[in-house]
Amino acid sequence: MPNKSKIIAFAGIDGCGKSTQLKLVYDALISSYSVYVSKLTYMPLNDMNQNFLKDLLIECRSGLEILKQALLVQRKTNEYDYILCDRYLMCYLAYAYAYGIEPIETIKKMLFFLKNPDLTLYFNIDLQIALERIKIRGKALNKHENYNTLLKAQEGYAKLYNSVGSIEIIDANKSIEEVNKSVMKSLTLRKVITHL
Asked: From 18, 55, 166, 196, which residue has the greatest number of CB atoms within 10 Å?
């Protein structure tokens, strides 16, 4: 039996607006469709480069996080019309690359059974704008929210563009409203959402 759900992944570096855009898409869909939201956390990666054994355990824990999320998404695919993923495999791999977990191709092969999203929305943003948005949140910057880590994560994303199936690159430097118009246009043009 084919999966009922359409899976939409929201990807990009910290500060790009993926969580904001996911909420806007959720709000647009929820009155007409059943929607499930899944969020991947890869925070264990923030503690990398302590020592070999600890780094190995962190890599295993991080891999388990993506596996746990992916299996949960797969279990939900016949229960909901849409599954919105705040981060997904592409995000994990990009940040794994940023923290020096190599090779990402090996990790992808190990997770070969994971279904690609029907559409990955990648929010491309200037690093300085992303850092400013992170500061506006009112929280102190985490140690991973710095120019070099975000730059390496962007490099990781660029290496993955061709391996995630259907991807739409969104200019996230614009206002929330302009970005949302681009998102909704992409979702309808790609026939991920047929009508609202």
From this structure: 18
- The dihedral region occupied by 165, where left means phi > 0, alpha psi between -120 and 50, and beta the remainder, is left
Helix (H) or strand (E) holding 8: strand 6-11
Q: What is the pTM of this model?
A: 0.85
CB 79 within 8 A of CB 34: yes
Residue 196: CB atoms within 10 A of its CB come to 11
3-state secondary structure of 104: helix
Q: What is the pLDDT of residues 82-106, one digit of tens each?
A: 999 998 888 888 887 887 776 555 5
Note whether 187 and 119 are within 8 A (CB).
yes
| Domain definitions of the chain by residue range | 6-189
Rounded CA separation 158/140 (Å): 28
